[in-house]
Amino acid sequence: MSSSQYKWAQAAIFFIAINALFQPAHAQSIRSETVATGLENPWGVAFLPGERFLVTERAGRLRVVAPGGKLGAPVIGLPEIAAGGQGGLLDVLADSDFARNRTLYFCFSEPAAAGSGNSTALARATLSADDTRLENLKIIFSQKPKVASSSHFGCRIVESRAAANGAPDGKLFLTLGDRFSRKEDAQKLDNHHGKIVRINKDGSVPPDNPFAGKAGALPEIWSYGHRNAQGAALAPDGTLWMHEHGPQGGDEINIPKAGANYGWPVITYGENYGGGKIGEGLTEKAGLQQPLHYWVPSIAPSGMVFLTSERYGKSWRGNLFVGSLKFGYLGRIELASPFSGKVVRESKLLSEAGERIRDVRQGPDGLLYVLTDSSNGKLIRLLPGG
């Protein structure tokens, strides 16, 4: 075989491998059912007892969706929110013991008390018995420092579980963006930009956090070197997974370990908007973690969940689901073995609708629910069968 024939053969093998990776899913057909519509740029969804939903709208509204899809009036009692650009009311999470304590957590872009600037903040509150207002509101975390930016807030909340028995352990993870204009901060431990933080539910710092008690480091930090993470979820074994936006290319899936550095902006598989390398143009460097999986071109990922039910058949159980804002589909990501960390195939679901997917969650019924991001956004339930 000549050198040119060998190169063509290599190219053909590469094309076949990439084509196979993105083939449509054939194991199980699905159909979509609109649960609610008329939501203005919805960002996060949580599940309440009685087949109700709690949905955030980025403009700064929190709504309860009743059975039948009826939207409740905006819940009152929210703090002041710096809505604009990518900022606003973002993720929401119902406490694992919500049926008893009616506690919820939400993150948002918090304006500075004086002067300009904002940052991501995490609040805890109690939802009133009639679902109309928030009570006992407390800001339990504020990203430091505040900067004048309308971009890269991150803002996904995950309730963690104990490794020993899988029960909730009273701690929360929160993803934080690099604020776009402060990307170099992601490599520094004296700020919260481009970090994942881990706190107790009352806002205090767990003593086993990797930087607790270390001089020059903020104790809430769990991992660093992130860009803008808008998806995070626990695998069924309790391990935290997350994904983050790259610049132009280089969106990543990572499994953030305590104290680990994920490289941004020193290493990346993306490039500057409009072209050109970032920094030295490196994709790897000693001491910096490689992504589990990355996308070039970018898909603009948002929302993330592991499917633990068999509502769509056994072959879907253990798959990872990620929304794409840029290309308007829900990615079904198959792993070599359940939660192995090796991606073998990605299939595109809901692509015919062409809707920006902002969030994806598994409901108490074992079905997948997605939020579409538009001025007339929808909450959609995915049902098995054509």
Annotate the secondary structure layout.
Elements: H1 3-21, E1 30-39, E2 42-48, E3 52-57, E4 61-65, E5 89-94, H2 98-101, E6 103-111, E7 118-127, E8 134-142, E9 157-161, E10 168-175, E11 195-200, E12 221-224, E13 231-234, E14 240-244, E15 251-254, E16 293-295, E17 301-306, E18 320-324, E19 329-335, E20 343-349, E21 357-362, E22 368-372, E23 377-384
Antiparallel strand pairs: 1-23, 2-3, 3-4, 5-6, 6-7, 7-8, 9-10, 10-11, 11-12, 13-14, 14-15, 15-16, 17-18, 18-19, 19-20, 21-22, 22-23
Question: In brief, what are we looking at here?
Answer:
With 386 residues, the chain is mainly β.
Would you mind describing this structure in some detail?
The longest helix has 19 residues, at 3-21. Strand 3 (52-57) and strand 4 (61-65) form a beta hairpin. The chain has helices at residues 3-21, 98-101, and strands spanning 30-39, 42-48, 52-57, 61-65, 89-94, 103-111, 118-127, 134-142, 157-161, 168-175, 195-200, 221-224, 231-234, 240-244, 251-254, 293-295, 301-306, 320-324, 329-335, 343-349, 357-362, 368-372, 377-384. It is built from 2 helices and 23 strands. It has a single domain, classed as 6 Propeller (Neuraminidase). The N and C termini lie far apart (47 Å). With 386 residues, the chain is mainly beta. Mean pLDDT is 92; it is low at 1-27. The radius of gyration is 21 Å and the shape is globular. The strands form 6 sheets. Strands 1-23-22-21 form a 4-stranded antiparallel β-sheet, with no helix packed on it. It has a 4-stranded antiparallel β-sheet with strand order 5-6-7-8. Strands 9-10-11-12 form a 4-stranded antiparallel β-sheet, with no helix packed on it.
